[in-house]
Write a structure and sequence with these properties.
Elements: E1 5-10, E2 15-20, H1 21-27, H2 36-39, E3 40-49, E4 55-57, E5 60-63, E6 69-75, E7 80-87, E8 105-109, H3 114-117
Antiparallel strand pairs: 1-2, 1-3, 3-4, 5-6, 5-8, 6-7
Length: about 120
């Protein structure tokens, strides 16, 4: 069984911290003196790494060798992680196509690189 890891982004400090599920449950109410919903964004490690060995989390922006960029999401209806295409690949009009997560490269995340997600 893999460890469930989380990345926590604070909008107050503009920084990340990392936590296990146990620590998250025990300490999140006291993380910044405010409630979780006010200034924290918690994303889950998806259980794998990119082609450079970087851990992949929900909210990461990934790049495929074919040129498209995708946003890593968890799809509750299908109970799995996947990618939502945010920059179209000129070669493949069918959207994000990849055989394995380790083909992808993490190039940012929705907190520090919102300009990519918003198409700026």
């Amino acid at each position: 069984m893999r460890d469930t890891a989380f990345r926590i982004y604070s909008t107050v400090t503009g920084s990340f911290s990392y936590s296990t599920l146990k620590d998250l449950v025990l300490h999140i109410p006291n993380f910044s003196g405010k409630s979780y919903d006010e200034d924290l964004s918690v994303t889950q490690f998806i259980g794998t790494v990119d082609k450079n060995g970087a851990s992949i989390y929900e909210g990461d922006i990934v790049k495929c060798s074919q040129g498209w960029l995708g946003l890593v999401n968890y799809y509750h209806s299908k109970a799995h992680f996947g990618c939502e295409e945010i920059v179209t690949c000129k070669v493949n009009s069918r959207g994000p196509q990849f055989d394995s997560w380790d083909e992808l490269e993490v190039i940012g995340n929705i907190h520090e690189n919102s300009d990519i997600v918003n198409g700026e």
